[in-house]
Structures are given as C-alpha cells and as structure tokens.
Design brief:
This protein is α/β, with parallel strands linked by helices. The chain has three domains: 107 residues, Rossmann fold; 114 residues, 3-Layer(aba) Sandwich (Rossmann fold); 106 residues, predicted glycosyltransferase like domains (Thrombin, subunit H, Beta Barrel). The chain has eleven helices and 17 strands. A six-stranded antiparallel beta barrel has the order 12-13-14-17-16-15. The chain has a five-stranded parallel β-sheet with strand order 2-1-3-4-5, covered by helices on one side. Strands 7-6-8-9-10 form a five-stranded parallel β-sheet, sandwiched between helices. Strand 4, helix 4 and strand 5 form a beta-alpha-beta unit. The radius of gyration is 21 Å and the shape is globular. It starts with a strand and ends with a helix.
C-alpha cells in the first residue's frame, strides 16, 4: 500500500499501525514522481492520499488502465462536505480523518487482496465529451468499471460527430463543450443513434436545461460539478429509455453523514449518494456490520441536522469480481427517529422532490 503526502509524525504512526494490523505493508512517498514510479513497479492493493496535494497523482493513476480498480482513500484533517466532494472529484473512493486508526483499519480489512483487472465491456461504448482532464479521467474510470468501453471528445466538432456513431450507447456531454446540445442530440437521433444522453451543466443552468429537454426520451441532466458517480446514477436511471426529468423516488443528494451501529460508541463517516422518502444510500468502503444503524446528517435545503434510526437493506463492498454499477456503500431504510427529526426529514424530501418534479 502506498501512502502519499506530508504526514505529521503522529499521523504516520497511525497509518503504520492500521496497515500492520490489516496485514498491509506501508510504503510512503512525498514526491509525486517517486510515488508514480513506485506504483509502476509494485502491485499496490490500495493507495492513501493526503487531500491537500494529491489531485495530480490521483489523475495520473486513474489514467492508467492498470490502476483503474485500485482503491484510493483520501485522508483529510477536516471532515465535511467539501472534503468528500473535492476528493470524489479527482477519483477517491472514500474519505477518512487523518487522526485515528480505527476507520482506516476497518476499510483496509474489507479490501480485496488480489489485483483488479478491467471489467468486461458488456454495456457498449460511452462517449465522454469533456475538456477538463480531471473530470474526463474520473468519469471514464467510473464508466469503465461499470462495464462500458470509453472514448473521448475534447472539441465541439468531435462531440457532435462522435455522438452520431452507431456503437455509442451512452453520450456524456459537458453543456459548455456541446453548448448546442439539443442539435447534437437531434442530429444523433436522425442518424439512427439509440444512445442515451447525459448533459452535465453548470448548477445555475440546470433548471433551464431540464425545461428545454423535458419530455425528450433517453436524456438526463446533472450537475457538472457533482461527484462523477452521479453520471453512473443517471445512466442507470435512463436504462430502458426513461423519459427525462420523470419524478423518481430516488434523488441525487450528497452530504456528509455520521453513522454508527445502534448502541455503539463512535461514529464513522460516509457521504450520501441518493435519498428517497423512506431511506438513503450512503457511500463508504466500510458498510456497518450491524443491521440497525443510527445516522446523523443535514437533510436537503435544511440547516437543522437530524438523527434517524435505520435498518440496513443491503451492503455493497469494494469488489473486483463484478461490474461496479454503483459505488460501495449501504442502503438504509428509515424506521424511527424523534418526531421533530422525522418531520424535518420528510418535509425536506417533499420540498426537493416537488422542486425537481
């Protein structure tokens, strides 16, 4: 396992202790060049990155087919929405506090001990029209791991031309690169394309673009600055030719969530992937073993945090043996909570559902 960053003495000791207890050999580097060379000459099973200076190394690593399935854990001195969003944007699989041993140890013990191979391309070809290298790389990695073969476009002309190709099953268009996305989609349809399209737009333009594409089948619109796994959510939602902007029980929503098995002493941290009226999907490499879980988080468009009780409906661990059609984590059905907390949660969900519907 590689650890990259400038770690304080006590942080390095905590990392070493977790690695030793999980039967990993820890190798540390402070230079991105040395870290890159080490990765090329060793069969790493995991990589730990200091969030303060790791984006370039993460993108370099994700650009390599050899490391497409290498689990990357970001280490942060402050836990919060910004830490998760930033780390996910450059390809991390989870975010942990730098202090303490238990969260890292728990995750290391869940990771596979064999090198991951690229999954079979069973879902066709995905076109990613994106000029930003980081975004292009991490979205490509997510879709490859989900079973797509991937091709890229970095100009408006290529985006429009490639979208018409018969083999394209999914086209992910940055709204600024393909600013005339309605024409791009129309021309592709006229050429016989049966691809689904996802338009990634600036948050301020989401409402307008969704209204423009309302009623168009096989088209979704998402926030261009949201975690790359949101592209996968939209692609799964469109599978089978769904109509754009249909009302759905599942809504993309990302925020930090503290969780612990009911009656346990300490919280762990994850990040919500999507929510529904009666539940939520929490991203983490370490789903809780307990079937009943306490969670605390801020509901959509609310400053009042709520603590709820949930029952684990399913768990998905980091796995090399299947296509990663969803990120690792767990699904939770909400079963209890204080009356005020339950009311706040239900009101927040109803408000955002109505706004998106």
């Amino acid at each position: 396992m590689l650890a990259f960053g400038r770690f304080r003495r006590e942080e390095r000791l905590a990392l070493s202790l977790a690695a030793e207890q999980a039967a990993f050999t820890l190798h540390a580097e402070e230079s991105p060049e040395d870290a890159g060379r080490w990765l090329e000459s060793h069969d790493a099973m995991a990589m730990l990155l200091d969030t303060e200076a790791s984006e370039s190394l993460a993108v370099q690593t994700r650009s390599s087919a050899r490391h497409a399935r290498l689990p990357i854990i970001a280490l942060s001195r402050e836990m919060g929405d910004l830490s998760f969003s930033d780390a996910f944007s450059w390809g991390a699989d989870d975010v942990l506090p730098l202090h303490g041993t238990r969260p890292l140890l728990t995750r290391l013990r869940t990771l596979p001990r064999e090198a991951g191979t690229l999954p079979a391309s069973t879902r066709g070809t995905a076109l990613i029209a994106e000029t930003d290298k980081t975004r292009r790389t991490v979205v490509g990695r997510v879709l490859r791991n989900a079973g797509y073969s991937v091709m890229f476009a970095v100009t408006k002309e290529d985006a429009a031309r490639f979208a018409q190709q018969e083999e394209i099953a999914l086209a992910v268009l940055n709204a600024e690169l393909a600013d005339d996305y309605t024409t791009t989609i129309s021309l592709a349809r006229s050429a016989g394309s049966k691809a689904n399209f996802i338009v990634c737009a600036n948050p301020r333009d989401l409402k307008t673009i969704r209204a423009t594409l309302e009623g168009v089948s096989g088209v979704g619109v998402i926030d261009a600055f949201a975690p790359p796994e949101n592209v996968l959510f939209a692609s799964n939602d469109l599978k089978g030719g769904a109509v754009n902007n249909r009302r759905s029980a599942r809504i993309l929503y990302g925020t930090t969530v503290a969780f612990r098995g009911a009656g346990r002493e300490k919280d762990d941290y994850g990040f919500t992937y999507n929510i529904s009226e009666g539940g939520l999907y929490v991203r983490t490499l370490a789903p809780p073993e307990d079937d009943e879980v306490w969670v605390e988080m801020a509901p959509p468009r609310s400053e009042r945090r709520v603590r709820l009780v949930g029952k684990v409906a399913w768990r998905r661990r980091f796995n090399h043996n299947e296509n990663a059609t969803v990120p690792p984590g767990f699904g939770l059905s909400i079963i209890d909570g204080a009356k005020a907390d339950m009311q706040t949660w239900n009101d927040a969900y109803s408000t955002i559902s109505a706004a998106l519907g």
